[in-house]
Amino acid sequence: MATGNSKITAVRLPLGIVQKIDALVGKGNRSRFIAAAIEKELKRKARLAHIASAEGFIADDLDTLAFVNRLRATDERRK
User: Fold this and answer.
1) What's the maximum distance between 2 C-alpha atoms anywhere in the chain?
2) Fewer CB within 10 A of the terminal residue: the chain, N end or C end?
3) How many CA atoms lie within 13 Å of 15's alpha carbon, on the beta-carbon side?
4) Is this structure's pTM higher than 0.70?
5) Higher per-residue confidence, 77 vs 47
């Protein structure tokens, strides 16, 4: 893990979680694993927020299968 663009942050975790992380990735890789897990969760939350903001973009009464089939029929790559 690069130390040039990072900040030490104290986080309290249950001992069992720390032991599971260490058993999985080793004590020397704990920070890298936790940072990757947090990044993954941040991306997931951002996707959910994006989906929530797009609510109503497609009408609820739309036949989704028919819509997808129309899109596929107009896709130039499929011709």
Assistant:
1) 57
2) C
3) 0
4) no
5) 47
d(CA 79, CA 73): 9
Q: Is the pLDDT of residue 60 over 80?
A: no
State the average pLDDT over residues 8-33.
96
Q: Residue 44 corresponds to which amino acid?
A: R
Residue 24's φ and ψ, nearest 5 degrees, are -80, -45
The Cα 74–Cα 45 span in angstroms is: 33
Residue 66's identity, in one-letter code, is A
What is the identity of the amino acid at 42? L
In sequence order, the 6+-apart residues with CB closer than 8 A to the CB of 35 are 1
pLDDT digits (tens, 9 = 90+) for 38-54: 999 999 999 988 888 87
For residues 30-37, average pLDDT: 96
Hunting for tokens 């927020």 — which residue is that?
A: 49
